[in-house]
Design goal:
Number of helices: 0
Shape: globular
Distance between the termini: 40 Å
Helix content: under 10%
Number of strands: 11
Oligomer: single chain
Structural class: mainly beta
Radius of gyration: 13 Å
């Protein structure tokens, strides 16, 4: 059974930092492309960042330069370091993995990030 468990969310003041973690089990993580998405109240879920199987990364324009995605295949984990947080970063953040070859798609349950002024 595939499981994605996110952690690290919480309440932080604007300008602060948080580090999200997502631990994946039940599949060969090294073969998976990993993404972070987020969904704010009343908004559609939006893509935030991606890291592929060889460590190449991509970011949404709204977070580029502030967020860093990374992975540790030995720990079956993907991380999102979020710096210089803004009020508009408030959302539920979701971990997502997609099979490099299979295209199978899995989601975590989400972790709440709230940025206060």
């Amino acid at each position: 059974q595939v499981q994605l468990v996110e952690s690290g969310g919480g309440l932080v003041q604007a300008g602060g930092s948080l580090r999200l973690s997502c631990v994946v089990s039940g599949l060969t993580f090294s073969n998976m492309v990993a993404n972070w998405y987020r969904q704010a109240p009343g908004n559609q879920r939006e893509w935030v960042a991606m890291i592929n199987t060889i460590g190449s990364t991509a970011y949404a324009g709204s977070v580029k330069g502030r967020f860093t995605i990374s992975r540790d295949n030995a720990k079956n984990a993907v991380y999102l370091q979020m710096n210089s947080l803004k009020l508009e970063d408030t959302a539920v953040y979701y971990c997502n993995v997609v099979g490099r070859n299979s295209g199978n798609n899995y989601w975590g349950q989400g972790t709440q990030v709230t940025v206060s002024s």
